[in-house]
Amino acid sequence: MSRFVVDSSAKSNGHGGARAGAGRKAKIAEPKIVKRIPVSLIPAVEHMISQLAGTRLYPAQHLPVDSWEIAEHLSQLNIPLATETIPAGFPSPAEPYISDYLDFNQYLIKNQAATIAVRCGGDSMHDAGISRDDLLIIDRSIIPKHRDIVMADLGNEFTIKRLHQLDNGCIELHSENNSQAYPNFIFTEGDTLAIVGVVTYVIKHIR
Is pLDDT larger for residue 47 or for residue 10? Predict the structure, then answer.
């Protein structure tokens, strides 16, 4: 989970802002890494993490109750991948039309240990192509950058927003829905924005 310590020049623009109690204070912001360890050491490592959880050395990381951790052992299913893009319709799945086979586990998940899936609970990012109940693939190992769509922990709620890192050091989370008024979140002096992860894929249910 990434954290941004916000510059003192951050101000509200009247379209929402940091809510009371939003964000968590932290003096140390450090990146997280994924490491491979021997299976025999897993119980000892988990015990150590549980002992440190909630302390200043290892702040507790909360996830939505409906988030799905990707299974430890992924199945493999190769789907035929057509040779050309199709403007309408789809060719017969005969071999001459097939250029490759696609495994969606490998396509959607770059870092299995750091990936979760969540359902979008609102329409504030509709103009970005994200609608209510869409399934979002979240990679927690990616370092968020300007204009990434991120899942953020505001301290009292989670949200999906567009991350804006301004030249003056301000950090903002923007909604993208011109048809309705949704708040932006602007973080003021002392606030710490916790980024759960970066949205890498959006899966829509069409039928």
Answer: 47
Which one of the listed residues 8, 27, 110, 124 is annotated catalytic? 124
Is there a catalytic annotation at residue 161? yes
Choose the catalytic residue: 32, 161, 175, 204: 161
Among 2.10.109.10, 2.60.40.10, 3.30.1050.10, 3.40.50.970, name the CATH number for the domain at 2-70+112-203: 2.10.109.10
| 3-class secondary-structure state, position 62 | coil
pLDDT value for 28: 32
- Number of neighbouring beta carbons within 10 Å of residue 159: 20
* Catalytic (active site) residue 124: yes
Query: Residue 84: is its pLDDT beyond 60?
Result: yes
Task: Specify the DSSP class assigned to residue 55.
Answer: B
| 23-37 pLDDT tens trace | 333 333 445 666 778
Q: Transcribe 121-185 into DSSP letters.
A: --STTGGGT--TT-EEEEETTSPP-TT-EEEEE-SS-EEEEEEEE-TTS-EEEE---TTS----E
Query: pLDDT of 112-155, one tens digit each?
Result: 889 999 999 999 999 999 999 999 999 999 999 999 999 998 88
| Domains of the chain by residue range | 2-70+112-203, 75-108
Which residue did the predictor score with more confidence, 13 or 98?
Answer: 98
Q: Whole-angstrom Cα distance, residue 118 to residue 104?
A: 17
